[in-house]
Structure prediction request, 266 residues.
Amino acid sequence: MSALAPTLEVELALAARRGPGRRIVVGVDEVGRGALAGPVAVGACAVEIIDGAPPQLPEGVRDSKKLSARRREALVGPIRAHAAGASVGWSSPAEIDEIGIMPALTRAALRALEGLELEIDAILFDGDVDVLSAHLVSEDRPAPSVELRVAADRDCASVAAASILAKVARDAWMVELDAAAPDYCWASNKGYGSAAHREAIDRLGAHEHHRRSWRLGSAPAVAVAVPSTPVTVGAPAPAPVATSMPAAAGVLWDDQWYPQGGKERR
Prediction:
């Protein structure tokens, strides 16, 4: 039996809590948190709800992990056409190494939200760790509420759409990086820890696009410290950044580590 399609029930409930009128609810999801290489990407899909009237998103929107690459790519245009706003935010490998994965995820999410250029009433975030609320304080208007929901990419249409935006954008980024470093097979593994990817790291060492604070290759893990840096709203988007850290720098994060289970690996 096929899985049920995601709905907008949660988004409508969040809009109703904020009262009548025009409300903007944004679904947010990340891609690439567990990868060894490349940025983490956060998709944001905003839906407009006016006096409780349900918005429209294209048919076929599902959790990105449940769709083929071709189907995901075909849905990006319709999602952008139907949504009140759509954006992808990024945090680079160098940022992840500098501040750690969760603050880097926060940066990427804030960049995605800023890219919408909308006044947001509520945010629906896939997962159970609130990385946003403390950074949404505004002197101009009430901060948007943040709703956490495990498996929101499966159940909530705006989050499923956000997952597609992030997945397609990050996959394209990794395919482009593959042209500069084909030995790591990023076009097929998208930076995750496949056997071919780890073997290439063992043989060639880490590339500038690797997360040097991760466990890379097949060597045993040796813990290293990463300094804590405050999250900065409006920090620049990721760019290829070389690092002087040696390839065998050890590990703070492992690609097997997830605050929530079942995150994508391909």
